[in-house]
Fold these 2 entries.
Entry 1:
Amino acid sequence: MERWINFSVGVMENKILSKLFILIFMICGLCLFRCEETVSPPSSMRLNLTVTVKDTTGFSMENYGTELVENATVYLNSVSYYTNFDTLSDSTGTAGFFQILPDNYNLSVTKRMVSNFTKVSMNGSLVNIEVFGEDQNVTIYVQPAVASQLVISELYYNGSPPQPPYNIPQYFHDQFTEIYNNSDEIIYLDSIIVADLDYGHADEDYIYAVHANMFPGTGKDYPLYPGEFVVLAQDAIDHTIVVPNSVNLSGADFEYFVGGGDVDQPNVENMIKIHHKYGIDVLYSVFNDAVVLLKVQDPFAYGYSQFDLILLPKSAVIDGIDYRDNLAEVEYKRLDASIDAGLTGGFEAYQNKSVHRKIDTYDEGRVILMDNNNSSIDFQVLDHPTPGYLFDE
Amino acid sequence: MNSNIKIGTGKINFKITMITGLTSLLIVAGFAEPAHKLFDPLYFHSGIQLHSVVRQSMTNPCWNFRDDSTSTVRYSLQAGSTNGDFRRILDPGQINDSYWTASGSQRLGERSLFYGSFSYRFQTAADKTWSHNRQPYSGLPFVFADSSTGDWELNGLMWNVDISREFIRDRVYGGISVFYNVDEEYQDIFPRPKGNHRDMYINTGIGAVSSNDSRLGFMLKYFNIQESLATSKYSLDQEKTPIFYKLRGLDTPLIFRGQTSEERLYSIDGLAVSIDGTIRKFMDSKIDFAANYGSSTADNVDGGAYPIEQGSWEDEYASYAVDFTVFLGNNTDIVFYSNGLQRFQSATHPDLHLEIYHETERQLSGGIILNLGTKSSWFLSPSAEIMSRMLKREDTFNGILDYFPGTLWKYHLLVDTPDRGYVDFKFGVGFDKYFVGNDEIFLPNNVGFYYQSITANDELYYGTDYTSFRFTEMLSFGQKRRYSLELEYLRLIPGDSQYFNYSFREQLQLNFIVEDLIRFTK
């Protein structure tokens, strides 16, 4: 230690002392250049979109004296980024979406009202609106649609994941359709058709069905009382035997039967096959499809497309549901806004999930299910299907 | 330099000369690649961190002949492990890395030296969230990912060849160095993405030495980094469909559901120039300096028969380092040093063709090392350093800005025990303290799920103070055959944050080296 003290004193006495001071000064000076800077809010490419909601059918003019639709819920979803926004239109029929990303967007509009003691939904949609470069203004036209009396209350199209003991990789035979009487009157199911539709047919008058099956009966054989429902199974058996997490459909009311090797449960009434383009059973797509209820006098009267799809009149549709695994792909919708202005689903295939219509209200103990003709807001996703009973949040 | 000038006696001309000289040096040098390995482009791009055996691309290969004209054969095992939750969210939870290396150098005639190394690398990265990219935080905002968190395993081979030559005896030297790495890694859970990497660095350098052993060198470096990521059609997990994310900045990635296969190709091309040198007998002192400027661009496409552009990226960096060593006699000297780095990165949107992301990183540090020798050959080196640094990320597409300034104080003591010829032992202990400055975060109102689950967590990380403790040790023994055992341990302990408390992050590095050494005599 003493050596170091002596050493230090000796050194400090010579010229190096001065040199050290200079160097220390310089190093300290360098350290004063701190890396901090002043920052301000960043620039952004986000844009604004203004939507004007108009009804040119005369309905709004008749009821409210204006074509501009106030208090309509406007839904906006981004095609690329999976983001969804919603807002209400103001008294000038205008809804604003602020600071949204540049992208292609899909718009849908719904407004519920009562006119002449009838529930009416005003629906409209626009797809692939380009919002790039500068703020945009668009006008969306809506049209009235009367709420259905007979509705699809639950649709299980998803299929089941593999499970021991059999680990079947893609099990879809447990699909079912649950149909509910949403009215306060008896509805007869006789001759009502359940059909699923093909994509890509821009026809104002007809829908193009891949499969179409009709309830049996001659007119009043199968009454459905208010607040009751029926379950229509692809195969009316207990599917939990092969996939434990699946559903037991042995108590279903009806089942599809296409002949050949298809399961035919003798205790369950079969649907009448009207048209069956392909498959050993009536299989809804586990990814995306649309299912409708309709009633016509003669289902064979409207002909077939060149691709073996049966044509049925759009005006005869009672209720419909459009679903996809990717909800942003609104441009691939199969039903127009007069039947279903939205999309439900949004989950992967074979997850054991179903889509279930939400409960809207109760009328003297009877459940009224939500029916805006917009499955985006009418339906919810259930983690497990509920055939034969209603799911109440 | 006129040695008759009296330092500190009020002769202003010296001070002006001195300050002007060093300032000019800094300006000429710009921000450069320093002797302290302030910035390692190889590690930055590739994540490869080799310590003691492989020379890699940092130093000018022209000096190999002059500095270490030794014929050696070395075998080494370098093993390292990093774990702990004080990390950015896309970093792996635990990384275990090992490199098995054989290297050697050999004189080729009187004036050339050959150096080569060959390494096998094995890495496991556990708990890696989403990202398929090797370096998700490289500043390249176009990262490919899926929704899984899993373990990755990597196997790789790398080699390095240097040739340096003395062109004019004791005056002019030249050299070339090539580094090449190939590896493959894959994730062990669905959807089992796979990554292949090919990294190549070519350095050429030339340098001259004066009669008083001062030197000046120039180096030109080219590098090409390629990363190929692929997820092939799944056949075993048919109950699952992957969700792929194409990340583009700090929020709103593109989401793809139900895709069965994806391929992404990255290619980074870069050029860098450096200047390095030593000025000796500068007022009984020595100045070492290095400066580096580099620029690179990245192309980024989805693979397949019809590649689709997924955005491009530019990177520009400059760094400098200066060491000023004052010799005090009796094996004692003081080193004043400063180094700095500035890096700019920008990314361009693949469809809009507009710049959507900017990242700026800046570091500036100054420090002092006192090297104290004793008669009994003990050597003590206490040191202190202050570093000011800043990270700014600006996502102009989403309208998000992150700004994190901070100050790091570093204290270290190195103790070198007397070399007894057969056994040499040295160890060091260090303590660092990092303080976050006035950080700023600007957000739009409608940020999405990616910001909330990833970027917001990273902001907590960047905005957290920490304390770190370091311990290093090197033990070597043997004479003709030398055995070395090096150990480095680092533990980061986050301080109180108003947002979140992490527990720690630690790193342990172990090198074992066997070396046969034959020293040439000139």
Entry 2:
Amino acid sequence: MDDASLRLTFDGGTVVIMGGTPALRASLPHVTADPRIGGERAQGRDYRAIVEFLRAQKIAYTDEARAWGETKWTLKSERSPYPHQVEAVKVWWKQRGRGVVVLPTGTGKTFMAILAIAQTARPALVITPTIDLLHQWHGELEVAFGGPVGLLGGGHYDLQPLTVSTYDSAYIHLDRWGNRYGLLVFDECHHLPGPTYSLAAIGSLAPFRLGLTATPERGDGQENAYPGLIGPIVYRKEITELSGEFLAGYRAITEFVHLTPDEQARYDAARLTYRHFIDSRGIQLGGPQGWQRFIGEASRSKEGWEAFQAYREYKRLERAATGKLAKLEELLARHTRDRIIVFTADNATVYQIARKFLAPPITHQTKSKERKQILERFHSGEYSIVVTSQVLNEGVDVPEANVGIVLSGTSTIRENVQRLGRLLRKKGDKQAILYEVVALGTMETFSSERRRQHLAFQ
Amino acid sequence: MLSNNLVRVKFARERLVPHYIDENDPALQDVAKLLLKLFRESIGRTRGELEEEIIAEVGDTPAQVVEQGLAKLLDDRCDFAVDSGKPPDEIREKIFMISAARRAAGTFDRAEVLAAAAQELELTIEQVELGLFADLKVEQRLMKFDDFTAEQLLRRYNVALAQSILLRSTGMTVTIEGETPARFRQVFRAIKFHRLICEIIQAGPKAYTFRLDGPMSLFSSTQKYGVQLANFLPNLLHCKKFELKAEVRWGAQRKEKTFVLTAGDGLKSHLVDHGDYVPKELEMFAQLFRGKIKDWDLSGETTVLPAGKSFWMPDFVLEHRKKKERVYLEIFGFWRRTDVEKLYGNLKANLAEPFILAVSESFNIDEETAKLSDDIYVFKRSPLPAEIVERAERLV
């Protein structure tokens, strides 16, 4: 080994620079002296800037950091892209292959990413939030490019030049994949900012990065982190700009049910205990720290604990009210020829419904093989119902679904838009229906209001 | 380890002080025994049933986090498995197919679907109902429980508490004093095993201070290495005298806190101690050396030398009485299992000081290398001081 020449190596999410002279090393962009190793070190994401600098200055170096080369991808798919997909890839590539593309759910973000992978011609890692999406991407990439596609997460550890990972696994295994991909695709990239997941973007050497989301804004203002982690927002289309042309029309219907007298009595009692505690302690649940304070108080005092139990009790009553299950029965009977997705806020209710109506559930506990089978049968029509909680909220492709029944859910707007998006896949001239079942005399009537305060519902 | 809600700490300014439990507290020993009995007798029951029983016995209020913590540690020692007449996914597939067909025909009736599925699967209706989701976590059954004693459980709790704090650590400094080279080697092996980066300074005649974190810690403090630091801890607990100082980001606001742990806290490792046993061959060699050699002093005091990305801890330091020159010596007899050639390559490339590796011929070192180098000495039955000194003289 020639000690005189500059040498780059990859070490657990960082680039280590040894050799050359200390002055030369220190002149490189974004490097920090590391006394622990007697050399310089930079974050993985700065690899591109360092290499571009070395090339521009015509400085000789040995690159032992990068473990990928150019990789030609041949598109096997016959599908012709929509104009906005072609346009998005063009704009993104012009921005040196770094940036976030904002497209509404159901407008072909996946295929846009496939075009970007072909354009980049480098080994690519797609990072996605849930196990369902992991398997869906895996399927789509296999169809698009043929050949083996790797999986990281959900019990799989198989790195291939084209691989799909969950955000969790990408973070945990960063040390092992960080120098093996030239392109990162961050699916639903609003999940990326934050101290943990963002390390995957910080530690990877990948010079090319694509972020995909329908909802780039985050409640905490961390969308400012996109430029450093992925790149700036380079392309954006709103749902109203594309509706009708690419999306199915839909109707939203709210169905109200009553609690039984017994449920109502228990509900009111639990709600009172909870409210009384919140008010007596002056906890503002609307504020950012309100919930934490409540949990904190609940873990310290007996009254707090009782209030917390009361909270859980009234939530339980709201979610699995007898009237809701009766209404569900009625709706299922009304739509025997349709494909129905039933949404609930929690997994316990998913299994309660699955048991009662003998319909297939999908939760984080569903193994990938069975999950795949259920979705395939839903696709083919062998199954007409799927019951799920949050796992199907984002991006999972079920184009046949034309009836959604929201039995319970959180009041966040994002969730509702994503749920609606499931049903918006254009398929013939189908009209989608989204039912929301709301228990009267409960707090749900308020959260349902809040849920619908979005452009798409006006 | 303990989940977030089970970790009890108090604050003393910036210090984070865990509520260790008194391992000799008879009340806690009773709780430990009760829980152990409950787990032992729960073989065959579902996780859901076991959890309910635990709540019934020791409660689930915030006042009982110690009890819940002990239960969590026992739960970590359990193997649960699915128990049903047929694999649950097969049962489900059958039921969902029949159910979907009947719904499409407008003839759905829950009891009839179950009966039809039971008949096709050759199970009873009850077996079908029970098996439907038998693979869910709460419905899995306890198959095996890795038993231990109440005393071990209470000790494990205190270690788990310290580990749970280190999970949120961004890095730590450890000072170890007065240990043998064998013990230091053990500690370094553990550091390497847990893929931590180590910076080391001599903190006194017999003491070394290690700074432990990871590659990305250079840029911003990160909790990425918390798991590795926590897993490393039990290895450190084998040391007789140590002090650990960890920087911790605590709570949702990630407030900066310090956590200090010393040998005086009395935590006891649950790992088997492979010991810092000094083979009598080394003692015999030292005796022989001191009896025969006049010009050189032999010291068995631990020295830690940086060598490339790792560290080397020789068994002995030879120092010339007059010229004060030093040569480092490590002896590889039958009691060692090390890749000597790899170590030799690393020392040759990265160590500035002169060294000798005395290697038993049973290691089958490449003969050519050995003949040509003064820093390798291949011995037959036991290393001879005169042979080593002869090489040392040539090296300095």
